[in-house]
Specification:
Arp2/3 complex 21 kDa subunit ARPC3
Length: 195
């Protein structure tokens, strides 16, 4: 008998389908405006939720690919339709890298949280993934563009950190809570259907 080496593909058919579908949902949320929740000080986003869902259901590679699509869309959106902070989002370290990392952190948070309650594991993954997005994007803006951010917002450079971390706190909590609610409902439903 011949010893055949197994060929392994990067992603299976189901994973590729899931990546395509969830990437499209993330982009549709951005284009339509439904991916943004108006808050008193800023807009919170749920565009990262498909990345978290994909990571939990199909693994870190799928989650990271969906994050790449989300980040790529963010970069292109800021080229096509620039706004006050587009200068920061034109840098892939701000617009793409944190979004790719969502898939990785959400997946491992889901795997590392032990216990019988599946809802708790899913919610924990959603919170970690959401905070990865918030901390990654705003942290990179602070590290790379604090002075330009302050100028764009019309505030003193000394207030950049306070303002950026204020937005992170305000948006981060709201986005994490919403992500946990949506992700838990969707993942639980999909897993029930798959059984």
């Amino acid at each position: 008998m011949e010893n055949r080496s197994k060929q392994t593909s990067f992603l299976g058919v189901r994973q590729i389908t899931t990546v395509g579908m969830l990437s499209a949902i993330s982009i549709i949320l951005g284009v339509s405006g439904y991916g943004f929740i108006p808050l008193p000080l800023a807009k919170a986003t749920i565009m990262h939720v498909p990345v978290i869902i994909g990571a939990i259901l199909e693994g870190p590679k799928a989650g990271m690919l969906i994050g790449l699509m989300f980040g790529g869309f963010s970069l292109i959106q800021n080229i096509i339709s620039p706004n006050l902070l587009s200068f920061a989002f034109l840098n892939p370290l701000v617009s793409v890298l944190p979004r790719v990392l969502i898939g990785l952190t959400a997946y491992y948070a889901y795997k590392l949280v032990k216990g019988r309650n599946e809802g708790t594991r899913i919610a924990a993954a959603a919170v970690v993934g959401s905070l990865t997005n918030t901390a990654g994007v705003l942290g990179m803006i602070y590290l790379l563009y604090a002075a330009q951010y302050a100028h764009a917002k019309g505030i003193a450079a000394s207030l950049a950190a306070k303002t950026i971390f204020g937005v992170a706190y305000t948006n981060g909590i709201a986005e994490a809570v919403v992500a946990a609610i949506i992700t838990t409902a969707v993942v639980a439903a999909v897993k029930k259907v798959r059984k």
